[in-house]
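2 proteins. here.
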Amino acid sequence: MGPQQGAAPPGEAGEGAALPSYEEALGRLAEEERGGGWLPWCEAEGIFQLPVREWVDALAAVLRPLGAARPLEAGAGAGVLGRALRARGLPFVMTDPQGGEGIAPLGASAALARHRPDLVLTCWLPFDAGGEAAILADRGVRWHLAVVQTGPGFAGSETLWRAKGWEGRPLPEVDRWSVSRADFLSEVDRGEHVRRGAAFLFTREAE
């Protein structure tokens, strides 16, 4: 499993470090499209989802009212998103099979067993790794916030949409600020921003 929400751009690795704004991110997208291309730049930087300030703020605004006591990020990659949410007062435990500074070296199943979270966040988790199935099958998990790739042929893992006992809803208030490696501008380096990353909140139905 590789990094999921992206490596930190230079100077943004620390907890609470400044993130780019949405406007700055679109400027970078346009600049890279005039050069070697946006996707090659994201691949070189290890970025799947670029955590811009407004996007992280919107995620935090969705997560806070849930009142989760034990939030966990599975597949945290370089930990940029988890650190940004921690800086906004959400006490995420970060886990990833590769580990890292402040990131426990655990896959999804092991992270669930060790930390017993009530909320799990994933961002571009590999759809064929079985992580979503483990999360949704865990009876202690009440909420799963999944950021997935959308677009032709993509909507995250089929497991997300076939899980019994869960209700999912899109988060347009988050997605309006989304910038991912699969995005593009309608006129190559200008025009409409076509988004391909989307957030969904899954809530376990009352029994």
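next one coming up
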Amino acid sequence: MHFSIADSIATRCFAHPDRVAVQVVGTQQEVTYGELWRRVAALAEVAGGCAPGRHGRMVGLLLPNCPDAAFVIAACQQAGAVAVPVNGRLTPSEARYVLENADCRLLMTAGGYLDAARAAADPLNIPVVSVDDVETPSHAPRPVLGKRDVGAEPCVIGYTSGTTGFPKGAVYTHDYYTMNNYRWGWQFGLTAEQVVLITGPMFHLSYAGFALAGLTIGARVRIMAEFSAGVAADELQQRSTFAFLVPSMLDMVAEEWEARGRPPLAGARHIITAGAPARLALLRTAMEMFPNARLAEMYGWTEGAFVTYEVKDPATLVETCVGWPALGADVALFDDDGEPCPVGEPGEIGVRSAVPFAGYLDDAEATRAVQHRGYLLSGDIGRWLPDGRLCVVDRKKDVIITGGENVYGAEVERILLRHEAVAEAAVVGVPDDRWGQRVAAVLVAKEGAEADPDGVMDFCREHLAGYKVPRVVRFAGELPRNAMGKILKFEVAELFTGGA
């Protein structure tokens, strides 16, 4: 493609400059489409000053939820730089790893993230720019669109948690990012009349993606600075028509709705949940809560993007079902021998899309490891239903999904083993009614060391984002292992669920 997401947004900005593009919930702040483009132009000038590194011009983004969190991604595209969103919940050392791995030569930040940005960037001598100090011009010329084919060039690097203890940078090309947003728009029916509510952190590519998809079509985007179940309920009752809520968010909104006496949240027209399969009871409650909305579930992952989708029907609800293959997705299941699975048999989920995954940044081995017969492997285990829908029944990868956030056990174990009292560590996910799963750890203490669970958790808080910190820590004399010495994670999990 010659057009980027930024180019598509530009056409909206000049077609209807006076239309409201973005509002910040709970404030008077709003940006028209005409103002949006002037802001993008100002931010693009800053991003364009990024020096090239070993992967090109990489711009780190550490931003709170605000209009600039979306605009700066478009600005990087206009400047010919690659956006590298950094999770705002990471510790400075975790954020520093991302910046160093991507070889970012500029970090753009704002508001309360400024100190954290400097703590991460200063040891690497990376310049830090607060976008709060960037002035928006009164005029910006109309850009020349589609000057060259940028489709195969990277535009965003999305960092995933690492199965080996370190994150990997998933490369999104312009074609990949643009096509995924267009697929969302087609499948979800996004139009200029929609009011898109952004409920979650925009350093996650899903929430930033929904904001950009809305702006691409000319919709109005309303951004929540932070999630509040009460505010979300108000929005979906009165103002916003479209929202993406991970199951833990949906659960909190349902509790708020119950506490208010179950008033219909009648403003919502399309509610999507994803991040982990939603409980059937929660889906049924949501159908009552949003009487005028299509309630849908989608499934995907950072590298695989949009894989399955289903508008829920109370007559056909099935536990862990995430729907039919999405528009433009060829989904297959593979058994342990790498052969396709028939209906009813479990296998690892793989996907092929119109635009293939471009791989991990500077990691050809990891890229090869997730590919099979042209399919991108998920690490999740699925099963086909006779009607063609997919159920996600297990996880092959050592990944815990808590509140919609991915946590890899190996990453947490790497930190635990740095504690002076810990000789061995096994991290697992255990069921949690609110968050889906919570992180739990079983440790073996070094000889003569004190077994202090609270001290271990305090240590983890210093080195890990809060959502990765084990909520429960137990010490044991030894870890359960098989004959080959491999830790039996299912037996570790049973220590928390009463099975042993």
